[in-house]
Design goal:
GO cellular component, one term: extracellular region
InterPro entries: Mce/MlaD (IPR003399), MlaD_Phospholipid_Transporter (IPR052336)
Largest sheet: 8 strands, mixed
Radius of gyration: 26 Å
Pfam families: MlaD
Number of domains: 3
Protein name: Mce/MlaD domain-containing protein
GO biological process, one term: biological process involved in interaction with host
Strand content: 25-35%
Strand order of the largest sheet: 7-1-4-3-2-6-5-8
Order of helices and strands: HEEEEEEEEHHH
Distance between the termini: 81 Å
Number of strands: 8
Length: 178
């Protein structure tokens, strides 16, 4: 009978070790994906003409380093986007800081890059302070770029547009015409 107890104990110990490791991995992944901001924070807002693609929880970065996150996005009375965000207490946001919406990766995720103001600039923003629309820059809009080609497309006939489209597709796919 002693052999049976030893046979059960080994799998139970293995399962216990597995459960502890699985719990640690789960907690680590949760903390990584939660995008929490460590320590105390200051709250701010910024007004943009357009924040297409920006979402709650997206990063706030200074010099590429994550220092905060977006906590809300809404519209003001003039139909401008107002982004609420928090930044770690150790970071100073000066009165002439600029906020720019940037692409984080190729799948279109965005973040807000804060470009610090200059030394001797207006005093730091107080907790709850706001950056005006003049100090913000919306994200690059590829449809705006493509709309710039509209005059070119209007001067071409259908056969020329098809030829141009085929040439562009081949160039983008790395093929050459034979």
């Amino acid at each position: 009978m002693g052999g049976r107890d030893g046979g059960i104990a080994k799998p139970l110990i293995g399962f216990g070790v597995f459960a502890i490791v699985a719990a640690l991995v789960t907690v680590t992944m949760w903390n990584t994906l939660a995008h929490s901001v460590s320590g105390g924070v200051h709250s701010y807002s910024a007004t943009f003409t357009d924040v297409q693609g920006l979402r709650d929880g997206d990063d706030i970065r200074i010099a590429g380093v994550r220092v905060g996150k977006v906590t809300g996005i809404g519209l003001d009375a003039r139909q401008h986007a107002v982004v609420r965000f928090v930044v770690q207490r150790g970071q100073t946001i000066l009165g002439d800081t600029k906020a720019l919406v940037r692409y984080q990766n190729l799948i279109g995720q965005r973040y807000i890059a804060l470009q610090p103001g200059t030394k001797g600039s207006p005093a730091p923003l107080a907790d709850g302070g706001a950056l005006p629309i003049e100090q913000t820059e919306p994200s690059f809009d590829i449809s705006g770029l493509l709309n710039g080609f509209r005059p070119l497309f209007q001067t071409l006939d259908a056969a020329q547009v098809n030829d141009l489209s085929n040439t562009l597709v081949q160039a983008l796919q790395g093929m050459r015409r034979r």
